[in-house]
Amino acid sequence: MSQTDISAVRAELGKILASPVFANSPRDADFPSTSVLLASCFIRQSKFDSAIAALQPIARDNPPALGRLGCAFAGLGRRQDAVNVLADLDALAKRQYDSPFPRAVVYLRLGDKERAFDWLAKAFDGMRNDPRYISLRNKLNLDGSPLSLQ
């Protein structure tokens, strides 16, 4: 996807979010995806207070929402709140599966690249022996060999 295509998608998404249909759509525990989508857009625009307001009602047992909530807290410099979100994700992981990605993005937003990469590595652990992963790794020159131009 080209940069022009990405810009067009973002512009279209902005129109949708500004529309009365989206403004009146449910944003609660029964329909968390609208709140997560809206919060993601707010985070992208550095409107962290708005993201927090959209996420707090639905974040409790929702790893994607918790991850974005942690990012919003970190974006506002509310480090302890972001760390508390990481603890919530740890507690949630004891009751249900949750992806390593929410933790990775919170750590990245906190500036802890080491832990962010640790959690990203955990996300790929289950795929390391999959031929598709190996092929992708080779295409991206992640095995240390010279890049093939063929």
Brief summary:
The chain is mainly α and 150 residues long. The chain contains nine helices and no strands.
Q: Can you describe this structure?
A:
With 150 residues, the protein is an all-alpha fold. The protein has one domain: Serine Threonine Protein Phosphatase 5, Tetratricopeptide repeat, CATH 1.25.40. It has nine helices and no strands. The protein has helices at residues 3-18, 20-23, 32-44, 48-55, 63-75, 79-93, 101-110, 113-124, 131-139. Helix 3 (32-44) runs parallel beside helix 5 (63-75) and helix 5 packs parallel to helix 7 (101-110). The radius of gyration is 18 Å and the shape is globular. The two termini are 21 Å apart. Mean pLDDT is 82; it is low at 146-150.
Which labels suit this protein?
mainly alpha, about 65% helix, about 0% strand
The biggest beta sheet is recorded as: none
Note the beta-strand portion: under 5%
CATH level-two architecture: Alpha Horseshoe
The SSE order reads HHHHHHHHH
Secondary structure: helix percent? 55-70%
CATH class: Mainly Alpha
